[in-house]
């Protein structure tokens, strides 16, 4: 990794080196076309091939059937906080939200502008250090949908399995763990993910929506806000973020070449174990901030004996080429984001640094 650092940033985050090199090779003239992907028409033949390839590869990765549409939208996960209720909440006008962190709270705030929000469960009283048990969830069988956040980027917790929601459509903000393992897509009504954590550059948001739910989108919605318009136009209602979709398409190919999501999951389990073992084996010097059974494979959050040491830790780590370790400003501490693209060698190097730092401090 010449001239590259260990990038542990929570997002925008590290991309696979192979993907960057491939994009670099084609940046100036995409496969002999004489132009960059950034410079070509989104309705031209070449880009049509790129976006169709992205759709096909994502379907292959997650085994997505024809009963789902894949949309590549803009506005980040944040716009989905609004688009989900605007499209899916009518006509019943109430929805269940499982609140496990700051992003879920933001999703709730937007849904409240559209209809009635039932907080089916919240871990706020425990500072979002755990994932609620199924038995805790007060789900409403008449809700328009149930919304949850599969991985809590700031607090470092992650659902092991989906909430069981019966016939109510399950909606998931998977921004920070999308494609980290195989899931059964048929459990979901809709999944959305901003690209900049696990699948590409900021600016693209993947939305996978079951087609029957598109019938809920009212004609009275503003055009861009309407899922059905985007689905009917195969993401081409307006100019999509072409370069971002191109990079995401390379990431999908990278995952397929590696052997798919079961292989990715194996590597993610392996990487996270190295880091959590180091935390647990540090005689309490490093302390995980979450319940053990809720630990995220993507964002590993921990603390040192005091804030001065944490500051020193981040500073010295940075000098050694580990970037992005400072915890989110709202919670402090340390956060190591070890998304799909982060290499195991980087985790091992970080553990070496942690052991060394402990010895010296
Ligand atoms: C980063 C993040 C968001 C916000 O994404 P934007 O692209 O900034 O809108 C939402 N949800 C989760 C879980 C995230 O990690």
Give the helix/strand layout:
Blueprint: E1 6-7, H1 17-27, H2 45-62, E2 68-73, H3 76-88, E3 94-99, H4 102-111, E4 116-122, E5 146-149, E6 151-152, E7 157-158, E8 170-173, E9 190-194, E10 205-210, H5 227-232, H6 242-258, H7 261-280, E11 287-288, E12 299-303, H8 307-319, E13 322-323, E14 334-337, H9 344-360
Parallel strand pairs: 1-13, 3-4, 3-5, 5-8, 8-9
Antiparallel strand pairs: 2-10, 6-7, 9-10, 11-12, 12-14
Helix pairs in contact: 1-6, 2-6, 3-4, 7-9
Pyridoxal-5'-phosphate binds at residues 11, 76-78, 103, 149, 153, 173, 175-176, 194, 197.
Structural notes for this entry:
It is built from 9 helices and 14 strands. The strands form 4 sheets. The chain has a 7-stranded mixed β-sheet. A 3-stranded antiparallel β-sheet has the order 11-12-14. With 361 residues, the protein is α/β, with parallel strands linked by helices. The protein folds into 2 domains: 18-258, Type I PLP-dependent aspartate aminotransferase-like (Major domain) (Aspartate Aminotransferase, domain 2); 259-360, Aspartate Aminotransferase, domain 1. Strand 6 (151-152) and strand 7 (157-158) form a beta hairpin. Helix 2 (45-62) crosses helix 6 (242-258) and helix 3 crosses helix 4. The protein is globular, with a radius of gyration of 21 Å. The two termini are 30 Å apart. Pyridoxal-5'-phosphate binds at residues 11, 76-78, 103, 149, 153, 173, 175-176, 194, 197. Pyridoxal-5'-phosphate is lined by residues 11, 76-78, 103, 149, 153, 173, 175-176, 194, 197.
């Amino acid at each position: 990794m010449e001239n590259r650092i260990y990038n542990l940033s929570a997002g925008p985050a590290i991309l696979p080196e192979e993907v960057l090199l491939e994009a670099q090779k084609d940046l100036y003239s995409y496969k002999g076309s004489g132009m960059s992907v950034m410079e070509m028409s989104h309705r031209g033949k070449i880009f049509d091939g790129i976006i169709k390839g992205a759709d096909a590869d994502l379907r292959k990765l997650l085994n997505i059937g024809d009963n789902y549409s894949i949309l590549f939208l803009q506005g980040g996960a944040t716009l989905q906080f609004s688009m989900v209720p605007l499209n899916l909440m009518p006509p019943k006008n109430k929805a269940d939200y499982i609140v496990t962190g700051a992003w879920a709270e933001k999703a709730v705030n937007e849904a409240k502008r559209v209809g009635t929000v039932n907080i089916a469960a919240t871990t706020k009283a425990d500072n979002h250090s755990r994932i609620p048990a199924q038995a805790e969830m007060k789900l409403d069988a008449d809700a328009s949908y149930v919304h949850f956040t599969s991985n809590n980027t700031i607090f470092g917790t992650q659902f092991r399995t989906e909430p069981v929601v019966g016939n109510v459509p399950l909606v998931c903000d998977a921004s920070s763990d999308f494609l980290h393992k195989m899931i059964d897509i048929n459990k979901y009504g809709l999944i959305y993910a901003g690209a900049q954590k696990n699948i590409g550059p900021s600016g693209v948001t993947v939305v996978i929506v079951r087609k029957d739910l598109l019938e809920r989108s009212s004609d009275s919605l503003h055009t861009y806000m309407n899922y059905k318009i985007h689905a009917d136009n195969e993401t081409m209602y307006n100019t999509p973020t072409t370069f971002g979709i191109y990079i995401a398409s390379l990431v999908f190919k990278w995952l397929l070449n590696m052997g798919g999501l079961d292989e990715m999951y194996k590597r993610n389990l392996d990487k996270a174990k190295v880091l959590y073992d180091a935390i647990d084996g540090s005689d309490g010097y490093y302390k995980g901030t979450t319940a053990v059974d809720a630990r995220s494979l993507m964002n590993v959050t921990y603390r040192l004996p005091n804030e001065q040491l944490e500051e020193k830790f981040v500073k010295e780590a940075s000098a050694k080429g580990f970037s992005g370790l400072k915890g989110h400003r709202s919670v402090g501490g340390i956060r190591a984001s070890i998304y799909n693209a982060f290499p195991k060698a980087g985790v091992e190097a970080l553990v070496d640094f942690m052991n060394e730092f402990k010895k010296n401090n």
